[in-house]
Write a structure and sequence with these properties.
heterodimer; A: 663 residues; alpha/beta; 7-stranded mixed β-sheet; 23 strands; B: 252 residues; 5-stranded mixed β-sheet; two-stranded antiparallel ribbon; 9 helices
C-alpha cells in the first residue's frame, strides 16, 4: 500500500480547490491537489458571463456596494441562505477580483466616453466617466439591481482558471492529475485524508493529511439535460455522504439555467440577456415582460426558467424534431458586440447549431445547471461531522446561495471561499487540533474497504448494465425532479431510484481490461450517484413548499412558517435505500434582511411568526443610527467581519462617490 | 469561419457510419495497436462526443477517450479525425464521409486508445517557460485595481484564449523532430505574458526561456499550428513577431 503524506489534501483542481490550496500553501502548509483531469480542464472554465463584485466602476454600477450585493444575494436565495456567509462573500468579492487582476486576468475595462448599449430592447447611450477609465467594468446580470458582473468577454471562467492555475504552478504545488478520491480515511470523528484511485492504471493509494478539503464541484450529471461537464458527477459529495456522519445540505435545491442550447444542453451565458438579448416564443413575441414586468428577462434564473416552461406548456413553444423550445434573440446586439464580448457563444452557435447568432435566433430551453446544496460546512468551510474535513465551492453548502444562486455568484464563490477556507485550513493545521494521530491500521482498513468495493463490482458478474441504469436515473431526474415538481411524480421518482439502487448491486461488467477500465469506473460511480439522486429527490419530496429553484405545483407558496430551514441528508447505514433527513432552522432573530418579497416572481409567501418582530427591530436600529455611516449600521444589525481572516477585513476602495449615491 | 453543414436530404434514411478507431492499451504489455471498426446509425446533429459515448455504452465499454466540457472550451478531447487534429466534441459527423478514422494525438504520452496525457506535458512546459505573472510584491486587496487600457485588456485576452488542447503540437513539423520544442502553445504564452504590463520580465529574460532551437528559433514556419488551432489564435503573427524581437534581443 502506497502512502503519500501532506499537510493538506485538496480534492478537486477547479477554481475553489486551487485557490484554497494556494491560501494554505502561502501559510507554510504543504499541499497536494488531486484532480480528475488536468486542472485547466475543470468545469470552472465553463463559467462564461462573469463574476459578481461590487466595484461600482461602470456608470450603471454607480452606487453599488457590499450592501446592495448582499441584499440581491439574499433575495436571490429566496431567504434560504446563510446571511453571515453572504456578508463575508460580498465583502471579499471585490478583493478577489482585484487579486485576480494582479495575477493577470484580462478583465474588460471601462472606456471613458459615450457608448451605446441595449437596455430593455432599445439602444441607450451611456457616458462613462473619465475617472473610471481603465478600471474593471461590469455588465448586467439577472436578479441584480446594479451592473455588477465583472467579465472577460464570455470566457471569464477560463481566464480566471488559467490565472489561478498558473499561480499554483508558480507556487510549486503538485497537482496529481487523473486521480479520483474514492473514500475518506476517517474513524467517525476525524478525517485523515483519502483513498485515491489512479484513473490511468487503476491502482489505489492512501493520501494521508492533517486537513482534507473537498472541492469537487457539482453533480449536474445526475440529470439528463444539464449544462454541466461530464466530470460533474458529485463523487466528492458522495464520499462525504458515505462516511455516514457528514450531512449534505439542501440537496433538493437545484438550479436550472434558462438558456441552454436545445437539445445539446450546452450553456449560453446569462450575459446574452444581461447585454440586452431577449427571449421570444413561437410567434416571435417577447413574452417575459408579460410575466415579469419589473425585471423581464433579467429576473433570477429560477423565475425565468419557470416562466419559460409555463410558456411552453401554454402552447407557445417553437418546435424542432427534438421537441419544444424557445428562442434567445441576440441579433439586436450587433455583430461587433458579439464578436468581442460574446465570442464563445458565437463559436458554440456555429459549431453545435450551425447558425450565426448575429443573424439568427438561438433555440434554448432550461437545463440543470448548478447545485446549491452540498457538504454542509460552517462559515470557515469546516464540514459538519468530521474534524479535519473541509469543503468549498459548488461541492459545499457554505450556504451562500440558499435555494437559488444569482448568475455570477458561483465563479465568485469559488475564489472567495477558496481564500477564506484555505486560511481556516492553515489555522487548523497549525493548531493542536490539526496534529496527525492516525494509526496505520485505520489507513489499511479504509484502503482494504475501498479495494473490496471495486473487487465486489468487478467479480460479481450480475445481470445489470451500469450505463443503462445511469441513463434511467438521469431520465427520471430530468422528468420527475426537474423545474416544476409535484408530490406524485417525485414519489414515483424516489421509488424508481430506490429500485435502481438495489439493481446497481447486481451489475455485470462485459469484460475485463487492465488499467483503469472505464466500465468499472462507471459502475463504481453509479452506486454513489444513485445515493445523491435519492438525497435530491427524497429531500424535494419532503419539502412541502416552493422556495427559489425548488418549485412544487402542489405546494406553490414559499412557507416561512414551516420551512425556513435547511435539509440535512445523511446515510448512516450503507444498507439504507433512503437518506436520513434532519433539519436545521434558520434564525430570523439574527437576520440582517428579514424574509420578504424578492422584487420579482410570485408574492404569496406564508410569513414566519417572528418575521414582523425582527423587521421592526431592524427598522428601529436603522432609525437610531440614521446619522451613522453604512458600515456602522451594518455592524449593529449583523456583525460578520470577525468571521473573516484578518487580512480580508478592510474596507474596499471605490472611486469617488457617484452622484445620487446614498452613503 | 462558419462550418458549412452538409444538410441531409429530407426524408432520406439516416446514414450508417463506420468509425475506425486506433486501439492500444499500454497498461497491457501484450497490447499491440490495431484499428477497430464500429458501426452505428447517424443521428441528427451527431458529434463525435455523442458517437463515441454511444459506442462505449452499447458496443465496447472499455473504449478510452477524454471529454470534459463537450462544448469546445476545455481542450480535453483533441484527437486525429481523418488524420487531422481537431476537438472531437464539436466535430459533427455530417461534415465527414460515412467512414471516419480516429486516432490519438501524436507526440503526447498515450494513456489508452484515444486518450493522451496532454496535462502532464502542459504542466512541464508551464514550469519550463514560467508562464505566470511573476509577482514581486503583494497585492493590496483593499485598494483600487491598477488601470489598464481597454484595448490592451482585449488584446491580452485574445492570446489568453488558448485551451492547451495540443492540436498545435500534434500538427507541428518541428515537434515531430524535436521533442523538446515548446511549440506554438508555449510561444503563444510567452507572447501573452510579454504583452501584459503586469509581467515585469524583460526581453532578455524571455530570451533565456525561448531564445534557442527548442524555442522560437526552432520553428520552421510550416504553420500547421495556425491552420489547426481550434480557437483561431493568431499564431502566425505572434511567432513571427516574437522571433523578430528575440533575434534583436539576441544580437545586442
Amino acid at each position: 500500500m502506497e502512502i503519500i503524506h501532506s499537510d493538506v489534501l485538496v480534492i478537486g483542481g477547479g477554481l475553489a480547490g486551487l485557490r484554497a490550496g494556494l491560501a494554505a500553501q502561502k501559510r507554510g502548509q504543504q499541499v497536494i491537489i488531486l484532480s480528475l483531469v488536468p486542472p485547466k480542464r475543470s468545469h470552472s472554465a465553463a463559467a462564461q458571463g462573469g463574476m459578481q463584485a461590487s466595484l461600482a466602476n461602470a456608470l450603471k454600477g454607480a452606487g453599488d456596494n457590499e450592501d446592495v450585493h448582499f441584499e440581491d444575494t439574499v433575495r436571490g436565495s429566496d431567504w434560504g441562505n446563510d446571511q453571515e456567509v453572504a456578508r463575508m462573500f460580498t465583502h471579499v468579492a471585490p478583493k478577489a477580483v482585484r487579486e485576480l487582476a494582479a495575477w493577470g486576468v484580462p478583465w474588460n475595462r471601462v472606456e471613458a466616453g459615450e457608448r451605446t448599449v441595449i437596455i430593455d430592447g432599445k439602444p441607450v447611450t451611456l457616458t462613462e466617466s473619465a475617472d473610471a477609465h481603465g478600471l474593471i467594468t461590469a455588465r448586467d446580470f439577472g436578479g441584480t439591481r446594479k451592473w455588477r458582473t465583472c467579465y472577460v468577454a464570455d470566457g471569464t471562467g477560463h481566464a480566471m482558471l488559467y490565472a489561478v492555475s498558473d499561480q499554483t504552478i508558480a507556487a510549486g504545488i503538485p497537482v496529481h492529475e487523473r486521480r479520483e478520491a474514492v473514500a475518506l480515511i476517517h474513524d467517525g470523528e476525524r478525517c485523515h485524508g483519502a483513498i485515491v484511485r489512479n484513473l490511468i492504471d487503476g491502482k489505489l493509494s492512501a493520501y494521508v493529511a492533517k486537513a482534507t478539503c473537498i472541492a469537487t464541484g457539482g453533480f449536474g450529471r445526475l440529470y439528463q439535460a444539464t449544462t454541466n461537464a461530464v466530470i460533474n458527477e458529485g463523487i466528492g459529495a458522495a464520499i462525504a455522504l458515505d462516511t455516514g456522519v457528514v450531512p449534505l445540505a439542501n440537496m433538493e435545491a437545484i438550479q436550472f439555467h434558462p438558456t441552454a442550447i436545445f437539445p445539446a444542453g450546452i450553456l449560453v451565458t446569462e450575459g446574452c440577456r444581461g447585454d440586452g438579448g431577449l427571449l421570444r416564443d413561437v410567434d416571435g413575441h417577447r413574452f417575459m415582460p408579460d410575466y415579469e414586468p419589473e425585471k423581464k428577462e433579467l429576473a433570477s434564473r429560477d423565475v425565468v426558467s419557470r416562466r419559460m416552461e409555463a410558456h411552453i406548456k401554454a402552447g407557445k413553444g417553437a418546435s424542432n424534431r427534438f421537441g419544444q423550445h424557445l428562442w434567445l434573440d441576440i441579433t439586436l446586439l450587433g455583430e461587433a458586440h458579439i464578436n468581442h464580448k460574446l465570442r464563445e457563444v458565437k463559436e458554440i452557435c456555429q459549431y453545435f447549431l450551425g447558425i450565426d447568432p448575429a443573424k439568427q435566433w438561438i433555440p434554448v430551453r432550461p437545463a440543470q445547471h448548478y447545485s446549491m446544496g452540498g457538504i454542509r460546512t460552517n462559515a470557515d468551510g469546516a464540514a459538519r461531522g468530521l474534524r479535519g474535513l473541509f469543503a468549498c465551492g459548488e461541492a459545499a453548502c457554505w450556504d451562500l446561495h440558499g435555494f437559488n444562486r444569482l448568475g455570477g455568484n458561483s465563479v465568485a464563490e469559488t475564489v472567495v471561499s477558496g481564500m477564506i477556507v484555505g486560511e481556516a485550513i492553515a489555522d487548523f493545521c497549525a493548531s493542536t487540533a490539526g496534529e496527525l494521530t492516525v494509526s496505520t491500521a485505520l489507513i489499511r482498513q479504509c484502503f482494504e474497504r475501498a479495494q473490496s468495493e471495486f473487487a465486489a463490482i468487478a467479480n460479481h458478474h450480475g445481470k445489470e448494465s451500469a450505463s443503462l441504469l445511469l441513463r434511467e436515473m438521469q431520465a427520471t431526474m430530468t422528468a420527475q425532479v426537474g423545474i416544476v415538481r409535484h408530490g406524485e411524480a417525485m414519489n414515483a421518482a424516489v421509488n424508481t431510484l430506490q429500485d435502481l439502487l438495489l439493481r446497481s448491486r447486481d451489475l455485470g461488467l462485459s469484460g475485463r481490461r487492465s488499467g483503469a477500465d472505464p466500465e468499472l469506473t462507471l459502475a463504481w460511480r453509479l452506486q454513489k450517484m444513485l445515493k445523491l439522486a435519492l438525497c435530491v429527490s427524497y429531500g424535494a419530496l419532503q419539502r412541502t413548499e416552493s422556495r427559489g429553484a425548488h418549485f412544487r405545483e402542489d405546494y406553490p407558496q414559499r412557507n416561512d412558517a414551516d420551512w425556513l430551514k435547511r435539509t440535512l441528508a445523511s446515510w448512516p447505514n450503507s444498507e439504507q435505500t433512503l437518506p436520513t433527513l434532519n433539519y436545521e432552522s434558520l434564525d430570523i432573530a439574527r437576520m440582517e434582511l428579514p424574509p420578504g418579497w424578492r422584487g420579482y416572481g410570485t408574492r404569496d409567501a406564508i410569513e414566519h411568526p417572528l418575521t414582523a418582530g425582527r423587521q421592526a427591530e431592524v427598522e428601529a436600529t436603522r432609525a437610531a443610527l440614521a446619522s451613522s455611516d453604512r458600515h456602522a449600521v451594518q455592524a449593529a444589525l449583523m456583525p460578520f467581519r470577525h468571521l473573516l481572516p484578518a487580512h480580508l477585513r478592510g474596507d474596499n476602495a471605490r472611486i469617488g462617490q457617484h452622484p445620487g449615491e446614498n452613503a | 469561419m462558419i462550418t458549412l453543414f452538409r444538410k441531409p436530404k429530407p426524408g432520406a434514411a439516416p446514414r450508417r457510419l463506420t468509425l475506425h478507431i486506433l486501439r492500444c492499451n499500454p497498461a497491457d504489455p501484450a497490447s499491440k495497436p490495431y484499428l477497430q471498426a464500429f458501426e452505428l446509425e447517424e443521428a441528427e446533429g451527431m458529434t463525435l462526443f455523442i458517437a463515441l459515448n454511444e459506442i462505449r455504452a452499447t458496443q465496447d465499454p472499455s473504449l478510452q477517450f477524454d471529454f470534459v466540457c463537450r462544448a469546445g472550451i476545455c481542450g480535453s478531447c483533441a484527437m486525429l479525425v481523418d488524420g487531422r487534429p481537431a476537438l472531437a466534441c464539436r466535430t459533427l459527423t455530417r461534415d465527414y464521409g460515412s467512414d471516419i478514422t480516429l486516432a490519438p494525438l501524436p507526440f503526447f504520452e498515450l494513456i489508452g486508445d484515444l486518450s493522451v496525457n496532454t496535462g502532464k506535458w502542459m504542466r512541464g512546459t508551464a514550469e519550463r517557460l514560467q508562464t505566470w505573472i511573476a509577482q514581486s510584491e503583494a497585492v493590496d486587496l483593499d485598494a483600487l485595481e491598477a488601470r489598464m487600457e481597454p484595448a490592451l485588456a482585449e488584446a491580452i485576452y485574445e492570446l489568453d484564449r488558448c485551451i492547451e488542447c495540443g492540436c498545435c503540437i500534434a500538427g507541428c513539423g518541428t515537434a515531430q523532430m524535436n521533442e523538446n520544442f515548446v511549440g506554438a502553445v508555449g510561444l503563444n504564452k510567452i507572447a501573452r505574458f510579454r504583452l501584459d504590463p503586469r509581467d515585469t520580465r524583460s526581453d532578455a529574460e524571455f530570451f533565456e526561456l525561448i531564445g534557442d532551437d527548442d524555442g522560437v528559433f526552432g520553428c520552421m514556419s510550416l504553420l500547421g499550428c495556425h491552420d489547426l488551432c481550434p480557437k483561431e489564435l493568431p499564431l502566425q503573427t505572434q511567432i513571427a513577431f516574437l522571433r523578430r524581437k528575440m533575434a534583436v534581443t539576441g544580437l545586442y
